[in-house]
Structure formats: C-alpha cells, structure tokens
Amino acid sequence: MEVKQLQSQVISFLRFPLAVAVIMIHTSVSDITIGGERLAELMPLPVYNFTYGFLDTVFMQVAVPLFFFISGFLFFFKETGFGLKEYRQKLKKRARTLLVPYIFWNLAMLAIMYLGQVLFPGLLSGNNMMIGEYGVKDYLMSFWDVSYRTGGTVHLPMNGSLWFIRDLMVVMVLSPLIWLIIKYLKVWGPIILMLVWLSGWGGPFTGLSTTAIFFFTAGAWFGIKKIKFIKEMTPVCLISCGGVYILSAAIINIISTTPWTEYADKLLCLAGCALIVQTSGYYINNGKWHPKPFLAKSSFFLFAYHSPVVGFIKKALWKVCEPDCDMAVLGVYFLNVALTVLIGLCLYWGLNKVLPRFTAVITGGR
Predict the structure, then answer these.
(1) What is the pTM of this model?
(2) How does pLDDT run across 63-98, given as a tens digit for each residue?
(3) In which domain, by residue range, is 295 found?
(4) Measured distance CA(59)–CA(63) in Å, rounded
(5) Are 168 and 112 within 8 A, CB to CB?
(6) What distance, in Å, lies between the first and last C-alpha atoms of the chain?
(7) pLDDT tens digits for 93-127?
(8) How far is CA 287 from CA 151, 230, 269, 280, 332, in A?
(9) Structural domain total, the chain
C-alpha cells in the first residue's frame, strides 16, 4: 500500500478508538457523587484504581493529544502557501465543522442538565448550580468556562469534553503564527513548545492550552513539510517497543506518588502517540485491521454526545447494580463504557437515517 493511502486509512481508523478512549476517561466511577457523597470512597478500590490508571497511562491519555496532532497535520497538509485567502477559507470551513457543533452540543448539555435537575433530583451531585437560577453571564460562560463561578482549576465549557474543540478553534485562529514559527524556527519550533508542555505549564489563558499548542504545531510541522508520519514497523520492533511501553506504564502507575510521575507520564504520552499510530499503520498495511466507515463517521457524535448523558448513565448503573466490592466496581466501569458507546452508536445510526441533514450539521458534516 502506498504511504499516502496508508496514512489516510490510519487517520480514518483511529477516529473511533480515540473517541472511545475519551469516553473511557469520563466514565470513571471514582467520581460518582450523589447528594454530596462520593460513592466510590465507601470502599477500597485497589484493583479498579490500578486498572483505570494503567489504561489511562497506556491508551486514554494519548487520545486528545493525537486528535490535536492529526488536526494540525490536516490543517496544513494540502497547502503550498498560507496567505490571507487560505486563512479566511479555512476559518470559514471550521466555523461549519467546529463552531456550529460546538454551540449545539453545549446547548444540548444545558437542556439535558436542566431536564435532569427537574426530573431526577435524586441523582444530583449537589455540587452544581441549578440551571433555572442561571443569569445572562452564566449562560454565556457555559460556552467557555463554567469554573468562573467556583474559582476551580479545571476550565471547561458546559459540555466538558468539548474543551478540545474550544482550544482547537483558538489555535486555528492563531494558525498564521504557527505557520511563521515553523517557517523561521523550523523543527526547533515544535521542540521548544514540547519543552514548554513538558514543564507542566497549562497555558496563558483558558482556551489556549500548551497541550493544544504543542501537538497542533507538531502535526502542522509534518503537514507543512509534507512529511508522511506513517512508517511501517517490523513485528519485532512493535513487540519490543510495545513491551517496554506497557511495562513502563505499569511501573509509573504503581509509583504514582513520586514527583517525577508527571514528567514520565508526558514522555509516555509522546511514546504512546507514536506507537499507536505506527502499530495501526503496520496492521492496516498487512490487512489485519480495516477502517470501518460507519465507526469513523460516528466518532464525532460519540465524542460530543457522551458528556450530556454519561453522568446519568453511570449513576443509574451504580444504583441498579449496587457494586459492593472492588471487582464489581470494575465491572460496572466497563459496562458503563460499553453502554455509553452502544447507545451513542444506536442514536447516531437512527438520527442519520431519519434526519441525515440535521445529523451532518451537528457533527460538522462528518
């Protein structure tokens, strides 16, 4: 298979598993809170905590960085120059593919939260302001950062998972600056930004995270230089690299209280991004894995839909299953992931059948 075709198939293939990885992050049962009480704190959870932490280190934490990287690559890959005309065309297209879905899914989150607060008060955490009490500023800030009311350190829009879209839109607005950084600093531009990201600095303001800047710029470097980042790897190389990566992730998860863990986690994130891309390339090129168009197209819907409903799903599952031991909690977690993905796929399939144009609008035409 030609490298260009392989690269396109890898990007298409990865869209679904990376969306599932984001869902796996947000379906954690350790933060289930009802009436101000964190239910998972009622029992020790060594097996669940290790399993979740290991999966997070190995797989889940690479999802959003890889999305930023791929977005940066695709933003510049077809361009031979980058003037005002190209910049305006790209922003106009992204308004349709990113801004419109971003507004819709935050509105959907507001509506679902309001209905949940009215219809299921017994499942409320007690930590959030009632939607019915919102003022104009509260509604406006729901599209940027809901933490302004509490002074929290996690800055998310109402639909929390869409912080990725928010930050992606910001770096796209700054894309001329990224073009200049790569043009004049060459490979040193992404390297400097990588060091800033490794330092642990979050970013200058809400909406411009160092994660977004670095990984988008890294992808942009490959796109601008027209370098195909997919490389075939031999089975021996894959096994050895994968083995070292997984072993390192397990060790870091065990010694997670050391001050070096954050830096080691980020280095593993870099290695994980490369390993996942190249592993996918190897198995697709050898006919073992095949991109599924339906799953690839459903990925944005899964990514955007799950935040409004996942809280209710996992609380309802906890109430129904009433896990009373570590392994039962782990089982509820995996059931939560499976149900969230399955419900999302069914909803996407149904909407796409009945309201295809509407579905295209809320998923950015994907």
Answers:
(1) 0.90
(2) 999 999 999 999 998 777 788 889 999 999 999 999
(3) 3-362
(4) 7
(5) no
(6) 25
(7) 999 999 999 999 999 999 888 887 777 666 565 56
(8) 51, 16, 27, 11, 34
(9) 1
